[in-house]
Design goal:
The complex is a heterodimer of chains A (61) and B (437). Chain A has helices at residues 9-40, 49-57, and strands at 3-4, 7-8. Chain A is mostly helical and 61 residues long. By secondary structure, chain B is mostly helical. In chain B, 79% of the residues lie in helices and 0% in strands. Chain B has 17 helices and no strands. In chain B, helix 1 packs antiparallel against helix 8 and helix 15 packs antiparallel against helix 16. Chain B is globular. Chain B starts with 8 loop residues before the first helix and ends with a helix. The chains are: A mainly alpha (61), B mainly alpha (437).
Chain lengths: 61, 437
């Protein structure tokens, strides 16, 4: 039985992939929302706290 | 060992099915406030100016809270019995539902609906399914089919009643009435509820001569700890949770976003709602059939088939352009969606026997709840990024097919993965009697 830190590898793969996807989508979604607001507005638009936090958490955004 | 026939034996033989009926009814009453939240959206938008996102966040908080509280609730149910935990949960439910009729701020809604009612749902519902399982040595498949059926028929019957109440009395009185009526019905049902067959001196349904009886009113704490340790050491304990997670990511993305997606493809709101109703109706049938098929025709094959039926049509939906194909795929998805959750109690029984199931069931519901919340959220996030639902559909399909693959590589269910609980409990009780002598 393959385990990592006492947890089966099958479970670990699902957990790691889900967390990675969540972080990536969070960052990408925040990025897309900010860009859309900037395109639709002539003045500098507000960036919400959750969007800033999402961009900070995601290493790819 | 079958009990000698007593004068009230016919009544007792009916009791396991009464327990199933009680569990089904409790599930209907507790889950209605979450599954029927849609009817309250418009009144809250009008009165408070809350957005759909604000309200759906409360829904997601509630799902997540219930999921995170599930393992703890499962343990409480095993340790103190589903009856005691049920009464505690009903008390929280009653207070929270009454408070819901007085809310004025968005954070009131998130706190009461999201946190308090999420906790109440977990404490009431999580211990009930493992307790009902204890009542059945055989025919567990039919019993679980009835329990899972209740998730589907509840909203179908209660939502129209809520709409009538909303139109006549408004949402505040509706919550107040729902609190009073639900609490009275659930309290009365719980009085009749018994945790184990031995509580009324009978054997579990389907006990044959030669089967060891389930004894004692409550599982001994020391054995509970030992068996939870045994279960946590198996791969199935963890993998069933991640499989439930994948299955719920797969269908929640569809059930939350199918209406806007269908409208995106040119269907009217009425047609899109009809497709959703069609999917839900088909799923009711397979909710009942799934445990039976899993028990009789092989668990891994049956459950992975349901996962494939849930995942494959979604991949087709991402590319189909014709209306008839869209509807056909939605129906096939409904078959898979209904069958997705029904096999898990059967897996638990085959892998862990008659051991108290609160812990594995709670961990599986943790995976399911997180998957439901994450899948529902992902659909919206992906639309924000790509202005299209196609990637959400592909992700949903991949999650379901990944779940199907994970099921196929689970342990062979032909033998128990842990020691036999009934034998161990019998030895423990005999040892205690000798010690007392």
């Amino acid at each position: 039985m393959i385990k990592s830190l006492g947890i089966p590898i099958q479970f670990t793969i699902v957990f790691v992939l889900a967390v990675s996807l969540f972080v990536y989508l969070l960052g990408a979604s925040a990025n897309a929302r900010i860009e859309k607001r900037q395109l639709n507005s002539t003045i500098t638009s507000e960036v919400y706290a959750w969007e800033e936090a999402s961009l900070w958490i995601c290493p790819l955004h | 060992m079958v009990q000698p026939l007593l004068p009230n034996q016919p009544l007792k033989s009916f009791y396991p099915w009464l327990i199933v009926g009680i569990v089904a009814m409790m599930q209907i009453l507790v889950s209605t406030r979450v599954l029927s939240i849609g009817v309250f959206i418009e009144p809250w938008e009008t009165q408070f100016g809350w957005s759909k996102n604000d309200i759906s966040l409360g829904y997601a908080i509630s799902l997540l809270t219930a999921a995170l509280a599930s393992p703890f609730s499962g343990y409480i149910g095993d340790r103190f019995g589903a009856k005691i935990s049920g009464f505690v949960g009903i008390l929280i439910f009653f207070v929270a539902m009454i408070l819901m009729s007085f809310i004025t701020e968005l954070w009131h809604f998130w706190l009461i609906f999201g946190i308090f009612l999420g906790i109440a749902q977990a404490i009431i519902l999580v211990p009930l399914v493992p307790a009902a399982m204890t009542w059945f040595r055989r025919k567990l498949d039919v019993a679980m089919g009835i329990v899972f059926l209740s998730w589907g028929i509840g909203p179908a019957f209660i939502t129209p009643l809520l709409v009538v109440s909303l139109n006549n009395f408004g949402w505040r009185v509706t919550f107040f009435l729902l609190a009073i009526v639900s609490t009275l019905i659930m309290g009365s049902l719980l009085i009749l509820f018994k945790n184990r067959p031995s509580d009324i001196n009978m054997d579990a349904y389907g006990t044959l001569p030669g089967d060891l009886p389930i004894v004692g009113m409550r599982p001994p704490a020391i054995l509970l700890k030992e068996f939870n340790h045994h279960m946590r050491k198996t791969r199935a304990y963890w993998n069933l949770s991640s499989i439930h997670f994948l299955g719920c990511v797969g269908h929640s993305m569809i059930i939350v976003w199918i209406i806007p997606f269908a409208m995106d493809r040119g269907f009217t709101l009425m047609e899109a709602s009809f497709i959703y109703t069609l999917m839900s109706t088909v799923s009711i049938v397979t909710r009942f059939l799934a445990p039976i098929l899993c028990d009789r025709y092989g668990m891994r094959g049956s459950l992975s088939t349901f996962f494939i039926l849930q995942g494959f049509p979604v991949l087709v939906l991402a590319y189909t352009q014709t209306s008839s194909m869209f509807i056909l795929m939605a129906i096939i998805f409904g078959i898979g969606w209904g069958g997705e959750s029904g096999g898990f109690p059967i897996f638990n029984r085959k892998y862990f026997g008659q051991a108290p199931m609160g812990s594995p069931h709670g961990v599986q519901l943790l995976g399911a709840g997180v998957g439901m919340a994450l899948g529902g959220w992902m659909g919206g996030a992906i639309y924000d990024i790509f202005d299209s639902y196609s990637w959400a559909l592909i992700l949903s399909g991949v999650a379901s097919l990944g779940g199907a693959f994970s099921i196929m590589i689970l342990e062979n269910p032909s033998k128990l993965l842990i020691p036999d609980w009934i034998q161990r409990e019998k030895n423990y009780n005999e040892l205690n009697v000798i010690k007392e002598l």
